[in-house]
Write a structure and sequence with these properties.
CATH class: Alpha Beta
Order of helices and strands: EHHHEHHEHEHEE
Oligomer: single chain
Distance between the termini: 17 Å
CATH superfamily: 5'-nuclease
CATH topology: Rossmann fold
Number of domains: 1
Strand order of the largest sheet: 3-2-1-4-5-6
Strand content: 15-25%
Structural class: alpha/beta
Number of helices: 7
Length: 121
Amino acid sequence: MKVILDTNGLMIPVQFGVDIFDELSRLGFSEFLVPEAVVRELEMLVKRAKGFDKKAAKIGRALTKGCILIDGLGPADDVVLRLAEENGAAVLTNDIELKQRLKAKGISVLSLRQKNRLDFD
């Protein structure tokens, strides 16, 4: 199964100490997709954020190296939504607004639960 990783999903390992790839594999996902817009958002955070958020963005950016990068430019949330529909993929995100938009389109959403595991929303 395919899952698209959103910017804040890639920052979970630093922010909460959760291995997202182990958790996604446990839930049955084997293809990890990252849109180009998400990579650009992480790069912007690396340049502009400070402290803990900067560290989380740097590690999130490094984690994209183990994923399948897919084309898609524009606002990251819009790109994630469009690509999830086109690829029949679930989405890992903690963004409340994006979760609502995804659910409205019938797209499966994964997010952090109890600050120690991932699960379907």
